[in-house]
What does this fold into?
Amino acid sequence: MIEFRALPSDHPDLSHSPLLRAALLTLGYAREHGSIGLTKTDAFKRVFVYWAVEHFQWPGKTAAEMFRFNKVVNEFEFPPLEVLPTS
It folds into this structure.
């Protein structure tokens, strides 16, 4: 069995985590804007999804690639937003 070990919040490896960076940016967005709007189906509103695509710097999913074929990107089309809970 894999044993997990807790890392201190200042551990240098954490700066390389795209998921941690995405979560921190999401919290910063919510703090700055008061909240993150949800659709009637509890998905993130597109204004936040667009912002996330532009700011997360997700490996293999640059903003240019994400908007290359579609001007609208939904939450389910951007991997890091699929793992962040909306409720």
Remarks:
- The chain has a mean pLDDT of 86.
- The two ends are 31 Å apart (CA to CA).
- The chain is about 40% helix and 0% strand.
